[in-house]
What does this fold into?
Amino acid sequence: MNISDLLGAMVQSGMAPSSNQRLQNALGGGRGGSGNLMESLGGLLGGQKGGGGLGDLLSRAQGGGGGGGLGGLLGDVLNQAGQATGGRQNLALGGLGALVGSLLGGGGKSVGGALGGGVMALLGAMAFKALQGSGQSSGRLPLGLREPETETDQQELDQQTEFVFKAMINAAKADGQIDKQEVQRIAGKLQEVGADAEDQRYVLTEMQKPPETEKLISAVRGRPELAAQIYAASLMAIEVDTPAEKAYLARLASGVGLTPEVTRRIEQMVGLQPV
It folds into this structure.
């Protein structure tokens, strides 16, 4: 399996009790903002696939509650990012269907890699939106949101996916260590999606390592789009209901150079109350 498969499996495991709800909020399941990401995405992908099917699936998923949906994010991304990449067809949106399918109870071996790609596309869209008008954007479209054009692009995307994967695990250690129940849940999901023994050992080794916060910060600092994705991914991995978790997020945000304005935008997107 590749790192995208492993990220997809970890997201499917639901690392924190609120993980799925926050994903739904970020996808537009919340009622905030003007418009709805799932509704727009359903129309777009339904049209691309000939109607029905995926479009219906995405529309059904929008019934989730919560606040802070991305609102008109998709329209903004398609209009601005599509122009930057030479057309909407160059945006990496297909995996979002696998992500929504997972939230509706789907999953298994067939969606692993696609699900990981969907996570990266969603995080890329969140970063794109959160950094707009902040003065922090590099002006580059997050790679997870656009299709890699070269082998170098693909290698960079794989590296960024691994950073996101490790960031989620690192966040889960904010209270000291990942509890046994969580380890068992993630290990079970890895087996379910077909991870071999080597992949399972890699994930379990990462989970058992001491926190590597400073190493992560050093690798991401100066890369605002990736920093925003890392912060968003971390919110999917923990509840943020303990002093240790709140302190971890504050350290992560300041270390990678995200302003309070940007972090608040990301927190609103996932429906998290101010921390």
Q: What stands out?
A: The mean pLDDT is 78. The radius of gyration is 17 Å. The CA atoms of residues 8 and 116 lie 4 Å apart.
